Amino acid sequence: MLERLNQAMDHIEAHLDQDIDAADLARIATTSEYHLRRLFPALAGLPLSEYIRRRRLTVAGAEVLADRQTLLDIATRYGYGSGESFARAFRAMHGVGPGEARRTGAALNSQPRLSFRLVVEGSSSMRYRIVEKKEFRVVGRRARVPLVHEGPNPAIAEFVRGLGKETLARIEALSAEEPSGLLGISDQLDPTRAEGTELDYYHAVLTPPEAEIPEDLDTLAVPAGTWAVFESSGPFPQTLQYLWRDVFTQWFPSNPYESRPGPEILRVELRGAEADAALWIPVERTRR
After folding, report:
1. Is the peptide bond before 237 cis (omega within 30 degrees of 0)?
2. Burial of 80 from C-beta contacts in 10 A (0-12 / 13-18 / 19+)
3. Dihedral, CA atoms, 283, 2, 114, 239, nearest 10 degrees?
4. pLDDT tens digits for 31-90?
5. Of 163, 229, 271, 280, which is most buried by a Cβ count within 10 Å?
6. Could you read off the pLDDT of 174-190 as tens digits, one per residue?
7. CA distances from 166 to 130, 161, 171 (A)
8. Is the previous residue joined to 179 through a cis bond, with omega within 30 degrees of 0?
9. 217-230 in b/e burial notation, b at 16+ Cβ within 10 A?
10. pTM for the whole structure
């Protein structure tokens, strides 16, 4: 898969002065657009759209300094509708406007061209299994929270504390599907998975679709499908966050699966400062 991702990077470089469709990139990478938008930030550290924007402004910056074209011609070539919009984007990346950069020969920032390679370390193994699940429902309480990449998520912690022991016990008693018990379930994540973007967080259990549910609880219907289940143990919450990172940077590039739309399910058992975690990711076999 990494070879095809690099072909998609080549396509970006050849079309920086044209419209670049994420669906075309996904076809080149022989994956779905959904999975590409999920995989790219994990591998590259920034969203796909941001990478394309920064590469365009890097190349545009070199043309600004070369002083062979007007600033408006450069702006138009790289997809900006006006000199003003180009100047705003240019200043946001380079810290200086294009006119001043040309007059003074200012030092500009650069987004390097990316290529991907697989590094085999062999120091650890990832425990996983593939599970086929019938249709089920998520049942519990829901909150809209920001995504946090490192350390505890204060919004989730405050939300769970506010539920109270009685409500938590009432929800847990409804558990009737695997994985059992109270779960942390994330849905409707931003495709970029950028820090601070929002998601629907459910503190909930899984039930069969026909189960009777109290009216005051939030529910989410989940269709039948394939899930990859990853298990890990270690310090909390770092183990959970590193587990997600490793799934997308190590497991997906090496296995014939890609992510598909659906909630991510996390089951955690705390042992003091340590945790045993099981992460359920909706997947489907790749088309290649």
Report:
1. yes
2. buried
3. 50
4. 999 999 988 988 888 889 999 999 999 999 999 999 889 999 999 999 999 999 999 999
5. 280
6. 999 999 999 999 999 88
7. 34, 11, 9
8. yes
9. bebbebeebbbbbb
10. 0.75
